[in-house]
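FORM 12-B: Structure-to-Sequence Request
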């Protein structure tokens, strides 16, 4: 057993959707979350910049004696993690768990993927899916406006619906029956996305699948906590704390406690 906390990072608030699922499946675990709100979004940055930001995020979490890192950021997972090797603890991204879930749930073998420009440009989702099942067909669409729409509180507005209609029309026309939400911000747009795609399309939350995968991994490695009390959660951001507290509750599904701190690189 291991009572050290789990570390989670994201470019902003989206990774809180992964934390929400972590709390659901492992309520006893301590969690340290870092949201790089001062440099969000990562999706439109160069590969070199994304790698540098991701290293910063990982190094910050390592200062907190964590036992596992979850890169709850589609862009960091797809663009940066392939270039980041041994850092002393296991790091998992959001890609493989989501790909495995999509392959289990698809009925027609047509899987859609939406993400930031960086995630889609990397083509990592398609590569992983086709390595697991060469017969699967993958259709991708970049949705660069989704993160700022969510981060600025416009997830349930006509603006979000109009943008989503434009982004998703091609995937709908291809007849995908499973759609990976390849950015942890996107579950906040789930209602809009589901309405546009239709009832026959199952949505896969990359953050939620990563959290489930993390539990299996920790259980297999004997690293789950042996405490039977509610875990402690601590949050760090690189920009305004008040904005994080106000919007973060929407992602987390509960009010964020006062243990939110601001740090600077």
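FORM 12-B RESPONSE
SEQUENCE OUT:
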């Amino acid at each position: 057993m291991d009572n050290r906390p789990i570390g989670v990072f994201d470019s902003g608030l989206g990774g809180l959707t992964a934390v929400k699922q972590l709390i659901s499946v492992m309520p006893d675990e301590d969690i340290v979350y870092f949201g790089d709100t001062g440099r969000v979004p990562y999706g439109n940055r160069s590969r070199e910049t994304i790698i540098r930001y991701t290293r910063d995020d990982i190094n910050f979490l390592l200062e907190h004696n964590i036992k596992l890192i979850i890169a709850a950021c589609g862009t960091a997972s797809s663009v940066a993690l392939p270039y980041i090797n041994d850092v002393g603890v296991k790091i998992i991204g959001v890609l493989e768990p989501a790909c495995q879930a999509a392959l289990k749930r698809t009925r027609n073998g047509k899987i859609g993927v939406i993400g930031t420009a960086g995630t889609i440009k990397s083509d990592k989702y398609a590569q992983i899916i086709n390595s697991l099942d060469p017969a699967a067909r993958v259709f991708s669409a970049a949705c660069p406006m989704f993160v700022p729409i969510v981060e600025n509180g416009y997830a349930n507005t006509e603006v979000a619906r109009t943008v989503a209609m434009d982004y998703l029309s091609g995937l709908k026309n291809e007849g995908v029956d499973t759609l990976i939400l390849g950015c942890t911000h996107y579950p906040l747009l789930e209602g809009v996305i589901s309405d546009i795609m239709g009832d026959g399309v199952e949505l896969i939350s990359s953050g939620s699948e990563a959290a489930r995968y993390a539990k299996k991994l920790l259980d297999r490695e004997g690293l789950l906590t042996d405490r039977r009390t509610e875990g402690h959660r601590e949050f760090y951001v690189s920009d305004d704390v008040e904005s994080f507290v106000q919007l973060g509750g929407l992602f987390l599904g509960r009010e964020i406690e006062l243990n939110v701190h601001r740090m600077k690189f």
